[in-house]
Specification:
38% of the residues lie in helices and 20% in strands. It is rod-shaped. The protein contains five helices and eight strands. By secondary structure, the chain is an alpha+beta fold.
Length: 232
């Protein structure tokens, strides 16, 4: 048996174990698979991120609404007017007239109504208070000195309602109306934001004061101060 030389064995071994080349198509295919996996992961992440953001903002809006509601119910619901004729307790319409009530409460804290006179008193009609002597847009009614025809009235505009003019005025012109009879005409000119629940007799006493021909009291009558209360 012929012997094979070691050098020949080495050459044969190199021929059998030569490196096997990797196909370029296979490399490209693998890269595409990896890219697709990455894109899928990015899409899933973005989708979850958008959901989380949407849920976050929804929860935030809900929380803000709850805070606003709590703030609304934390506001005083009643005001006690200390007048020169006695005390008048008013329930404030926090839900029905929130902006006007907020304005009224702010002015109360600034003592805007302290010393405010009732400068016009019209019997069976309205009592008007304010630091200015204007009639707050009801000149056409007061000049006639009588009520117009009785129409169907809103409960908000019956007797003993508290309101202010709809005209946008600065704080110095904020006037108070207390109706002493159902007045349908005031629907277009007065913002009702409260009603008298105690002290109707005091309102009637103010209504009975002597006035001149222009419905101005002959003797001073007005508000000494206002106390806000959460409950009564």
């Amino acid at each position: 048996m012929a012997r094979i030389k070691p050098q020949a064995l080495l050459i044969q071994s190199k021929k059998k174990k030569g490196p096997s080349g990797i196909n370029a198509t296979t490399i490209l295919f693998c890269n595409l698979i990896v890219l697709l996996i990455l894109l899928s992961l990015i899409a899933i992440y973005r989708n979850r991120s958008q959901r989380s953001t949407t849920n976050f903002f929804m929860l935030l809006v809900q929380h803000v609404d709850e805070v606003v509601d709590l703030k609304k119910y934390d506001l005083p619901g009643y005001a006690v007017l200390n007048t020169s004729k006695g005390y008048i307790t008013v329930e404030l319409f926090k839900d029905g007239s929130p902006e006007t009530v907020d304005k009224f409460l702010d002015l109360c804290q600034k003592e805007h109504f302290k010393g405010m006179p009732f400068h016009h008193v019209i019997k069976n009609y309205v009592i008007l208070g304010g630091h200015s002597q204007g009639l707050g847009g009801i000149e056409d009614w007061t000049s006639k000195g009588k009520l117009r025809s009785r129409l169907t009235t809103s409960p908000k505009h019956e007797a003993f309602m508290l309101g202010t003019t709809k005209v946008k005025e600065d704080s110095k012109e904020f006037q108070l109306f207390i109706t002493t009879a159902p007045i349908p005409d005031l629907n277009d000119k007065i913002l009702v934001f409260g009603r008298v629940i105690k002290g109707e007799d005091v309102v009637q006493d103010i209504e009975e004061v002597d006035t001149d021909e222009h419905y101005r009291p002959k003797y001073p009558v007005g508000i000494i101060g206002v106390t806000l209360q959460q409950e009564i």
